[in-house]
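Below is a concrete protein record.
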Amino acid sequence: MNSLKRYADPVYCIMRLVVGLLFACHGAQKILGWFAVPGRPPQQLDTLGTIGGWIELVFGILIAIGLFTRVAAFIASGMMAVAFFMAHFKATGTGWVPIVNRGELAVVYCWLFLYIFFYGPGRWAIDSMMRKDAPVDSVAV
């Protein structure tokens, strides 16, 4: 397993990029109308949905490029926790099990962003490039 350790930083940064862009796509769908399902009218958003869409779009891009990564990941994680409890747990009335109330994606995003918050931006991020000190080492396994 030690031979795989050298790939930890690149794989983490690719994961951060993919997760951030996927999160931004949800916001782009809500705010900009991109990636809409053909034949389905655009989603009508209330104030909370509009705020959530902007958080998804802006903070997803920030996470993807690694700028203000910890702050963006913390806010995105909290937003997904709120989304789970307000839109899936409470609104559907089907209980707390994510597979039943269709909230599994919200839970996965919540925990991924919490992991990014604790791990940091990684070596390949704008945050790391802007710092003057030594690059961040990967977590020892």
